[in-house]
Amino acid sequence: MKEKKIQKDKFKKYKSIEELSDIEKELFTEAFNKMKHAYAPYSNFHVGSALLLEDGRIVGGSNQENASYGLAICAERVALFNAGSNFPDVAVKKLVVVTKNYNKSDDQNNNDNFILAPCGACRQVILEYENRFEKDIEILLMDSKGRVYIFNSVKQMLPFAFSGYFLK
Ligand code: THU
């Protein structure tokens, strides 16, 4: 298989969670806690997400699946809609997403380069929150070795995005 190249100028890379700020460590802890509430009997892929809101509040979410597979909602969207529905006037500053499946030996994620990154649909939803509050959202990802990648905006991972003709 062709080696996947990632564009290194789009994010900052850290060796481990230990290099992060206290609030970022707290976000990872919360994301792993929320992951325990994942309802993922179909994929067995448990995901947790935590957001830091502008007012310092932390809200989270986990993936929620359905017997009708296509209805599954990712942890990131559950967290964002949780924030949007409970704290509609507060911007999101940071988003963390994690899984416990980093080291799973029996699937395609069993390699050194696995990074859990938001799916395309979630990227579009994150962008909506950036546009809605006119504020970029930092996205913190982890790889299978516990390294952390920080993007300063979803726009780094969603170029040429659809932004809605009514916005800008
Ligand atoms: N999933 C997430 O919750 N977030 C991601 O970033 C990737 C995928 C969920 C959706 C589904 O429940 C399961 O993981 C397998 O795709």
What does this structure look like?
The protein has helices at about 20-35, 75-85, 120-135, and strands at about 10-15, 45-55, 60, 90-100, 140, 150. By secondary structure, it is α+β, with helices and mostly antiparallel strands. A six-stranded mixed β-sheet has the order 1-6-5-4-2-3. The longest helix has 14 residues, at about 20-35. The protein starts with 11 loop residues before the first strand and ends in a 17-residue tail after the last strand. About 25% of the residues lie in helices and about 20% in strands. It is built from three helices and six strands, in the order βαββαβαββ. The protein binds tetrahydrodeoxyuridine. Tetrahydrodeoxyuridine binds near residues 65, 76, 97 and 118.
Number of helices: 3
Order of helices and strands: EHEEHEHEE
CATH superfamily: Cytidine Deaminase, domain 2
CATH topology: Cytidine Deaminase, domain 2
Class by SSE composition: alpha+beta
Query: End-to-end distance, in Å?
Result: 40 Å
**pLDDT < 50 runs, ≥5 residues:** none
How is this fold's topology laid out?
Layout: E1 12-14, H1 22-35, E2 47-53, E3 58-62, H2 75-86, E4 92-99, H3 120-133, E5 138-142, E6 148-151
The structure holds tetrahydrodeoxyuridine (THU).
Quick description:
The chain has 168 residues and is an alpha+beta fold. The chain has helices spanning 22-35, 75-86, 120-133, and strands at residues 12-14, 47-53, 58-62, 92-99, 138-142, 148-151.
